[in-house]
């Protein structure tokens, strides 16, 4: 239930300096906030009505953004985002590969058109359908791509099967902006006369509202309310709350043009026969045109066009984003889950994060859920797949005391709530709240044990018991509880275990936990110190081979 509150925006990330009492107070406040949003009795406790609301089918987007948690003022009526389409003519495509057989392709396409028409009636917007053909030319793609998918499907939000999250959409913008995804595993229905199943039309109208710039509404009668609520779709009309919200973004529709009055002119018979169609004669003395020359041969693909093999190692950086491992190299990246590379990877960085360059140096997920990418003396700030306005910016703008020339590795360290930056043979401890490094930093990397200079990635194990540092084709494991350092060889493989030494990667459903949700032997606000410990080296091994371990004292 804590994960639900975090996922949908009610419970912020707790800091490492927060006591258990403060953490409990924050949880009660989050529950109260959720109860007010859904117009439940405000108790601050997980009573039966609150738990029942959490288990209802719903949209996968959050109800509140981090900025909404700054005050407790109740949001009323519709809510608009700062994102909108900068044009009135919007294109869309529907990928038909996984449309459920219970719906059928034709009925599904008609339903999507009908859902778009609901928004077209109340705005100046017009929509045009484009054929859904794969294209490497970004300009040829539609503004809004709609598809059905199961589980992981290429973005940061996994589908969870029947019930739960029904669909999600991205707010307007480049790249994945506007794209709308439906969970193919739901029991979808159309024009149902009962509450059985999930009506595709109702969900499509809701998600396309997001794709055009609307957030969730607290009005339970609005189509933009987050929880799914069945209603008759015959003669369906948008709620006034939905109409006002969309018109606040795009204005009302233009008034219809009056039809000019015309007096029909009767045809006057001429008495002449209709002209006979004639075919111009073909001249036999004119030779046929010469055949067209063959097209020029395609230029050879550049080496960077060839996807790299993850088995080669030597990555630019390795990090965890939304609980999944991301591995970057050149202009490509992989996603790794349960020590296995996901299908259809590597993928070009520019396809997923539009505006992000190749050869990035470091990346990490910030305490507020935003992604930060570093390259040379610049950084980019992303909200999911969308770069925020005004980026990139120089490193000196990130905070006081941050290394200004290059950052090799960055990690938000959950055991104490600080962010650590590594550059060369030194590291800095950064306070996300004050936006500054601590005064007694930088310090030598040796305080973390035998980690290398300029590490190329760092991430925590699923239980935050270990910190892993990556460089070249090896990783170093730091025991956060016992201060042990263990060096092991990393042997990536997309077909078997991604790493022979098997550094743990988190499960798909893992969400960050409050540091106070478990005991930690690390003093609050401290950084690792060098302590004596045994060092174990694991040899790289093939799958199904016994592991050999040598222990040095």
TrEMBL record:
Residues that coordinate or bind Ca(2+) 2: 143, 177, 179
Residues where Zn(2+) 2 binds: 59, 206, 210, 216, 224
Region (Disordered): 246-313, 494-553
Swiss-Prot/TrEMBL cofactor(s): Ca(2+); Zn(2+)
Annotated binding of Ca(2+) 4, by residue: 316, 361
Residue numbers carrying Phosphotyrosine: 391
Active-site residues from the entry: 207
A GO CC term assigned to this protein in UniProt: extracellular matrix
InterPro entries in the record: Hemopexin-like_dom, Hemopexin-like_dom_sf, Hemopexin-like_repeat, Hemopexin_CS, M10A_MMP, MetalloPept_cat_dom_sf, Pept_M10_metallopeptidase, Pept_M10A
The Peptidase metallopeptidase domain, residue ranges: 81-252
Binding site for Ca(2+) 1: 186
Annotated residues for binding of Zn(2+) 1: 153, 155, 168, 181
PANTHER family registered for this protein in UniProt: MATRIX METALLOPROTEINASE, MATRIX METALLOPROTEINASE-15
Protein name according to UniProt: Chromosome 13 SCAF14566, whole genome shotgun sequence
Organism ancestry: Eukaryota, Metazoa, Chordata, Craniata, Vertebrata
């Amino acid at each position: 239930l804590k994960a639900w509150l975090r996922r949908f925006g009610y419970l912020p990330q707790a800091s490492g300096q927060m006591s258990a009492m403060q953490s409990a107070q924050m949880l009660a406040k989050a529950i109260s906030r959720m109860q007010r949003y859904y117009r439940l009795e405000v108790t601050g406790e997980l009573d039966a009505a609150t738990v029942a609301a959490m288990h209802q089918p719903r949209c996968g987007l959050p109800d509140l953004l981090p900025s909404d948690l700054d005050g407790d003022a109740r949001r009323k009526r519709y809510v608009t985002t700062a994102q909108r389409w900068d044009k009135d003519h919007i294109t869309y495509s529907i990928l038909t590969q996984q449309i459920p057989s219970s719906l059928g392709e034709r009925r599904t396409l008609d339903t999507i058109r009908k859902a778009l028409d609901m928004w077209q009636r109340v705005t100046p917007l017009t929509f045009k359908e484009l054929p859904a053909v794969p294209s490497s030319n970004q300009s040829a793609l539609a503004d809004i791509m709609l598809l059905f998918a199961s589980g992981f499907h290429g973005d940061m939000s996994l589908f969870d099967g029947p019930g739960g999250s029904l669909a999600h959409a991205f707010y307007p913008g480049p790249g994945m902006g506007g794209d709308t995804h439906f969970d193919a595993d739901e029991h979808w229905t159309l024009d149902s006369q009962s509450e059985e199943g999930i009506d595709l039309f109702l969900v499509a109208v809701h998600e396309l509202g997001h794709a055009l710039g609307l957030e969730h509404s607290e009005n339970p009668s609005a189509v933009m309310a987050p929880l799914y609520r069945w209603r008759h779709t015959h003669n369906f009309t948008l709620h006034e709350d939905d109409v006002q919200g969309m018109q606040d973004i795009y204005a009302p529709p233009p008034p219809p043009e009056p039809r000019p009055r015309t007096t029909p002119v009767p045809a006057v018979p001429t008495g002449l026969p209709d002209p006979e169609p004639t075919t111009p004669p073909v001249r036999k003395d004119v030779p046929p045109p010469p055949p067209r020359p063959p097209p020029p041969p395609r230029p050879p693909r550049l080496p960077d066009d060839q996807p790299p093999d993850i088995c080669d190692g030597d990555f630019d950086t390795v990090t965890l984003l939304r609980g999944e491992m991301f591995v970057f190299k050149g202009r490509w990246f992989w996603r790794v889950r349960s020590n296995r590379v996901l299908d259809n990877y590597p993928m070009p960085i520019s396809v997923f994060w539009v505006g992000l360059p190749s050869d990035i140096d470091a990346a990490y997920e910030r305490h507020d859920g935003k992604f930060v990418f570093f390259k040379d003396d610049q950084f980019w700030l992303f909200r999911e797949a969308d770069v925020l306005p005004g980026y990139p910016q120089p490193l000196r703008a990130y905070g006081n005391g941050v290394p200004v020339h290059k950052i090799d590795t960055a990690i938000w360290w959950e055991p104490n709530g600080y962010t650590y930056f590594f550059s060369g043979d030194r590291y800095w401890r950064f306070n996300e709240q004050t936006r500054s490094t601590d005064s007694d930093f930088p310090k030598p990397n040796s305080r973390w044990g035998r980690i290398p200079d300029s590490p190329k990635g760092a991430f925590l194990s699923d239980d935050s018991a270990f910190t892993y540092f990556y460089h070249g084709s090896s990783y170093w494991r730091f025991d956060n509880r016992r201060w042990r350092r263990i060096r092991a060889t990393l042997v990536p493989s997309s077909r078997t275990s991604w790493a022979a030494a098997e550094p743990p990667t988190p499960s798909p459903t893992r969400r960050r936990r409050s540091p106070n949700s478990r005991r930690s032997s690390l003093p609050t606000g401290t950084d690792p110190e060098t302590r004596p410990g045994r060092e174990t080296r694991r040899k790289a091994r093939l799958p199904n081979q016994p592991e050999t371990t040598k222990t040095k004292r």
